[in-house]
Structures are given as C-alpha cells and as structure tokens.
Design brief:
290 residues, two-stranded antiparallel sheet, 12 helices
Length: 290
C-alpha cells in the first residue's frame, strides 16, 4: 500500500507543479499577443494540465476519511491564500505577486475538489452503477447551472468568482486586479471529474483514453462557449451557463463502453433514460432562454 501510494505521489506532484507553473506564468507572457489562436491554445493547455491534476489526484489510493482530511487541509490553505491580498497591500499592488497568489489558490481548489471527488467515488461499487450515476449527474448539473447559479450571482455577484478556478489566457496582459481570465470553472466540475477518474482507476478502465478524450471534449466545449459568446453577444448568457458534466458523462460512457456489462433490457432502459435526459435538458434550456 505504501509503495503504491509513493509511486502515485510522484506523478501527482509533477502534475501539480506543472499546472501551478502554467497557471502563474501564462498571464504574464504578454509578448505573444492577444487573439483567436492564443485563446484556443490557452484553453487546450489549461484543460490538459487541470485534467492531469484531477486524474492524478483521483489515482491516489486514499481511503475516503483520509481523502476528506486532506481536502479540509487544502481548503483551509486555499482560503488563507485567497484572502491574503486583502491583508497584505504588497500582494495586491504587484501584478506578479498577485498572479502567484491567485495561481496557488486556484491550484489548491483543484486539488481539494479532486480529493472530495475521490472520497465520494467509493459509493460506486461496480462499473454498471457508474453509467446511470453519470447520466443523473449530468441532469443535476444542468439544473444547478441553469437555475441555482444565476440566483446566487444575482445575490452575490463575486461569490462564484471567489471559489471558482480561473482559466488564464496566454498573452493577455494582467489588469490591476489580476489576470483577465478566459472563463471560470466551478469547483463542482472538478469534483465530478475526479469522481469519474477515481472510478476509472479503481475498476481498471481506460484511464489514458478517458484523459485524452476528456481534454479534447472539455477544451472544445469551453472554446465553443468563448467563440459563441464573443461573436454572438445575444447568446452570451446562454452559453455561459452550459453545464460541464454533460460532455464529461458522454466521454466517460463512450470511451469505457466495453467495461459496462448490461443485459439487453438494461441497455434499452439506459437508452430511454439517456434520451429522456437529453430531451429534458434541451426543453428546459430552450424554455429558460425565452
């Protein structure tokens, strides 16, 4: 057990360090300019590195109680680092220092959310349970993103930004209040992403293929949001609220389909549920945007 943990700690530490270096350094590389290509590359790089951290965190062989303990510690450190500029004027007056603070706090949020996903993943005892759980999570995520988050942002506009992870853009010059992010990702997305990866590791599924296609899907998903939002302002609010768990569930189920062993009746039931979920999301999305 100790050897396995030690072996998996090394790639975990490497993933965290590379992600942190990119997260801190990307918005300071202003000489590359600010354009379409930079946004596309920034989105792909961020998603590849953030998903790498999540995947490696989910691979740690930690019991649920231990994972939750480390999660609490990471959250405490996140809160301490995130509020530090309010008490140390030098941090908020220096753009480089501020980027380091935001980069470290964002990294801690990704790790803490991933640890929570790792802990919760132990409720899944077999692969067949994971499939309906993924479909249900996608539906819940749509409801939360479409109904609950807009209400929270109306009441407390800065609440989501405070706890969310900011996606940096290479070549975008930092403002006096920090980087100008491409977008933000809520902690729940990282929780469920780690939840899925923890199950993939535990059940011996296709971890590498899941990682590759998850990066492609999520990067494309976020890039689509940025392009549509910038080119067609009337759809900006709609695409900003697209739920991230939908592409996650689709990738998980398609890439690992051979690991699910359903009877013919179960396959039919799953197909019906998938169609219903897609229909509910489509109808609700259309109704909410009218």
């Amino acid at each position: 057990m100790g050897q396995t943990l030690g072996d998996r700690l090394k790639p975990f530490g490497l993933a965290v360090m590379v992600y942190l270096l990119y997260r801190v350094g990307a918005p300071l590389v202003t000489f590359l300019g600010d354009g379409f290509v930079q946004v596309a590359l920034s989105t792909l790089l961020f998603m590849a590195l953030a998903t790498w951290v999540v995947m490696r965190t989910a691979a740690l062989p930690l019991r649920p109680a231990v994972a939750l303990g480390w999660m609490v510690l990471a959250l405490l450190l996140f809160a301490l680092v995130r509020v530090s500029p309010a008490f140390v004027p030098a941090l908020r007056q220096n753009p480089v220092a501020l980027e380091i603070v935001l980069g470290v706090s964002d990294t801690l949020m990704v790790v803490s959310a991933s640890l929570l996903g790792l802990a919760v993943s132990h409720i899944i005892r077999e692969p067949n349970i994971l499939a309906p759980a993924a479909l249900f999570a996608a539906l819940v995520d749509f409801a939360v993103v479409s109904l609950w988050i807009p209400r929270v942002m109306e009441i407390a506009p800065q609440a989501l930004s405070t706890v969310a992870v900011h996606v940096p853009q290479v070549g975008a010059k930092p403002t006096p209040t920090g980087l100008r992010p491409i977008g933000i990702i809520g902690p729940a997305d990282f929780v469920f992403l780690a939840f899925y990866f923890a199950c993939v590791w535990r059940f011996g599924m296709a971890a590498r293929a899941t990682y590759i296609w998850m990066v492609v899907a999520l990067a494309g998903y976020m890039f689509f949001q940025n392009v549509v939002g910038s080119l067609t302002p009337r759809f900006m609010d709609a695409v900003d609220m697209l739920p991230g768990l939908v592409p996650m569930a689709v990738v998980l189920l398609i890439v690992n389909r051979k690991y699910f062993h359903f009877s013919r009746e179960e396959k039919r039931a799953m197909a019906v549920v998938a169609v219903l979920v897609a229909g509910i999301i489509a109808m609700a999305f259309w109704a909410l945007r009218q």
